[in-house]
Amino acid sequence: MRHRRRLLPLVGVLCVCSASLLAPGTAGALPSDGEAGATAAARGGSSVASRAVATRGEGNGSAVAAEAAPSPGPGSAEGWIWPVRGPVIRAFDPPEDPYGPGHRGIDIAAEPGTPVVAPADGVVTFAGQVGGHLFVTIDHGGDLRSTCSWVSALSVRAGDVVRAGQEIARTGWGHPGAPVPHLHFGVRSGEAYVDPMDHLGPLSVVGLVRLAPLA
User: Fold this and answer.
1) Which of 33, 73, 79, 122 has the greatest number of beta carbons closer than 10 A?
2) Would you say 33 and 56 are in contact if contact means Cβ atoms under 8 Å apart?
3) SS in 3 state form for the chain?
4) Does residue 20 contact residue 26 with C-beta atoms inside 8 Å?
């Protein structure tokens, strides 16, 4: 009987401790998935919960970034980069037929040796001589190609992947016998030549104004 009286207080204490461990909101409560992931990450563990939390975070961040900053494509409203900075001294004049007379591009005034850059991302399909003069053509996708003609040096080869703004050549004099040095820049949609100005973005006039020499 005495032994039973001694055991009763001990049993009561054990019951109270067990109840506190199972009660929600206490230090002994089972952690949620998020808490388990945070705990495992803090301890340097590699639990499935922590990996899932990290993956969800990275996935959401990537989706937001992609939606917030879409990359402009060729011919988009953002426009292509000008291959050189300078005034257009001769405009596009499409021929009436594929072999007829006309001007299949625009001439942009530029000093010989000026760096020529890719107007948009693409793949170089040709870089070499045509009739003893250097040309470089880039396929920009969407059936659009650009060509820089009568350059003096090439910085790329056929098959190279180029980014908008990357140097691809150096300017030469331009059309043989022309009075002003320039870059001839042409654009084709399929096999038809189109006006490059329809794809080029706006160009600031700063630095383009030049004084003509007195006669």
Assistant:
1) 122
2) no
3) CHHHHHHHHHHHHHHHHHHHHHCCCCCCCCCCHHHHHHHHHHCCCCCHHHHHHHHHHHHHHHHHHHHHCCCCCCCCCCCECCCCCCCEEECCECCCCCCCCCECCEEEECCCCCEEECCCCEEEEEEEEECCEEEEEEEEECCEEEEEEEEEEECCCCCCEECCCCEEEEECCCCCCCCCCEEEEEEEECCEEECHHHCECCCCCCCCCCCCCCC
4) yes
- Asked if residues 203 and 85 have their Cβ atoms less than 8 Å apart, the reply is yes
Under a CB-based contact definition with an 8 Å cutoff, are residues 83 and 108 in contact?
A: yes
CA distance 88 to 149: 15
Q: Which positions ≥6 away from 129 have C-beta within 8 Å?
A: 135
Q: For 161-190, what is the mean pLDDT?
A: 96
pLDDT in tens, 124-169: 999 999 999 999 999 999 999 999 999 999 999 999 999 999 999 9
Tens-digit pLDDT profile for residues 91-134: 999 887 777 788 999 999 999 999 999 999 999 999 999 999 99
User: Which percentage of the chain shows pLDDT scores above 90?
Assistant: 52
Closest CA to 182 of 109, 117, 113, 123: 109
One-letter identity of residue 201: G
Distance CA 2, CA 13 (A): 18
Residue 8 or residue 156, greater confidence: 156
* Side chain identity, residue 121: D
